[in-house]
Amino acid sequence: MASFSIPIPRNGLSIPSYSTKRPSTLHTPLKVSCSESGTNSNGIKGLACGILAACAVSSSAFSVTAANQRLPPLSTEPNRCERAFVGNTIGQANGVYDKPLDLRLCDYTNEKSNLKGKSLSAALMSDAKFDGADMTEVVMSKAYAVGASFKGVDFSNAVLDRVNFGNANLQGAVFKNTVLSGSTFDDAKLEDAVFEDTIIGYIDLQKLCTNKTISDEGRAELGCRS
């Protein structure tokens, strides 16, 4: 059994990660344990194990890539927005896909059933609308969601690692037991967002806490120091 913590051992990879728990266990490290036999592979924390390790290696490189990302032309494929209801059939947490998933400018307002649990890895989501949607257990690894609107979206138990949420509207979004490691929230609107039991790396937490739109309650859930 390999457990992720500080310091890095000679025979394994360990990273600092935190789970935000309300109300009394702020700043408590979360150890995500991985078993080679697979006994701990079920559930969100089993999946988080590999994701947090990947983020420790690649999050800084991803930030540079995202900042200089050049997007392809908007897809002219008919019914491209409906492809979100199927999602990517391969890749998942690695952000690999069999075909680009272009959801830019699509409108999924109040979509309550067709997005739950879908794999939207590396999806292009800029300027799309997901307000009020149920996106529980969604996998959005390496998605590009700059300028998208997620007001009131339920992201419970979702995997949102290495997502670019720059300038996104996340007011009232629910990140309960959600993996956020490696994701960026530059100039995002996070008023009334819920961060209960969020799984996030320490450096990513420090960056997230600089967002002044997070409510006092949200900052307490995250464990922001000031």
From TrEMBL:
A Pfam family of this chain: Pentapeptide
Keywords: Repeat
UniProt keyword Repeat present: yes
Database matches in InterPro entries: 5peptide_repeat
Listed PANTHER family: THYLAKOID LUMENAL 17.4 KDA PROTEIN, CHLOROPLASTIC
Protein name, as recorded: Thylakoid lumenal 17.4 kDa protein, chloroplastic
Annotated organism of origin: Arachis duranensis (Wild peanut)
Lineage: Eukaryota, Viridiplantae, Streptophyta, Embryophyta, Tracheophyta
Gene: LOC107460520
